[in-house]
């Protein structure tokens, strides 16, 4: 499939919805890219499950301090006010509802808001991590993902067939083709690529897309 957003562009779009001063946890891997694209004049406070709050940019190559890593084992820098704490305290922050936003990847998202993102089935390698806590501890849970799998199957589905991470937890999905809200057990289309028709987008989506108000063009910079 051509004419879709890159991972960096999806991450950029998700970053635009993070409010200044929000406490944010980014999932390991692709979601970590969101931190690169904070809008000018805004500064999120990033949290990592292994016990850092308020860390900064990734260090330059060769300048890593490997005592300073995030949950994905990637080197980070510290900022004025960065806090360090025990792993258990970090999860107390998650479970206590102190995070404003969690942004995670996904294998499947159901129209009910159910999320499957830790196992591809019996032959997959389990990788639960902190996601099961994050999806029910953060005040808002968003997903960033390609709209379809590598073999062209929809990732937005009527019901997840893979093991669940959480039930009715996702409220917005940023994909390579669209921005979709989950409201009342339905996928509600908010933005789509201008070159893609609604019918073509629907054909790549495994559950009905609903329109409630204007659908705007999904516009992102070249990155």
UniProtKB/TrEMBL annotation:
The entry's keywords: Plasmid, Transferase
InterPro entries (alphabetical): 3-oxoacid_CoA-transf_B, CoA_trans_fam_I, NagB/RpiA_transferase-like
GO molecular function: CoA-transferase activity
Record keyword Metal-binding present: no
Lineage top rank: taxon: Bacteria
Stored PANTHER family: KETOACID-COENZYME A TRANSFERASE, SUCCINYL-COA:3-KETOACID COENZYME A TRANSFERASE SUBUNIT B-RELATED
Similarity annotation: Belongs to the 3-oxoacid CoA-transferase subunit B family.
NCBIfam families from the UniProt entry: pcaJ_scoB_fam (TIGR02428)
Name the UniProt record assigns to this protein: CoA transferase subunit B
UniProt organism field: Paracoccus liaowanqingii
């Amino acid at each position: 499939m051509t004419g879709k957003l890159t991972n960096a562009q999806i991450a950029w779009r998700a970053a635009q919805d993070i409010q200044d001063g929000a406490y944010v946890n980014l999932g390991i891997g692709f979601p970590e890219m969101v931190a690169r694209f904070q809008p000018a004049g805004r500064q999120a406070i990033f949290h990592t499950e292994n016990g850092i709050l308020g860390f900064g940019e990734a260090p330059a190559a060769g300048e890593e301090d490997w005592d300073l890593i995030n949950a994905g084992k990637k080197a980070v820098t510290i900022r004025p006010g960065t806090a360090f704490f025990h792993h258990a305290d970090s999860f107390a922050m998650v479970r206590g509802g102190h995070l404003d936003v969690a942004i995670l990847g996904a294998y499947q998202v159901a129209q009910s808001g159910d999320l499957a993102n830790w196992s591809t089935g019996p032959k997959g390698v389990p990788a639960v991590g902190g996601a099961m806590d994050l999806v029910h501890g953060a005040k808002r849970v968003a997903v960033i993902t390609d709209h379809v799998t590598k073999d062209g199957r929809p990732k937005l589905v009527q019901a997840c067939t893979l093991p669940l991470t959480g039930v009715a937890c996702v409220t917005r999905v940023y994909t390579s083709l669209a921005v979709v809200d989950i409201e009342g057990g339905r996928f509600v289309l908010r933005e789509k690529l201008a070159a893609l028709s609604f019918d073509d987008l629907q054909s790549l989506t495994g559950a009905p897309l609903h329109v409630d108000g204007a659908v705007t063009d999904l516009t992102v910079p070249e990155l």
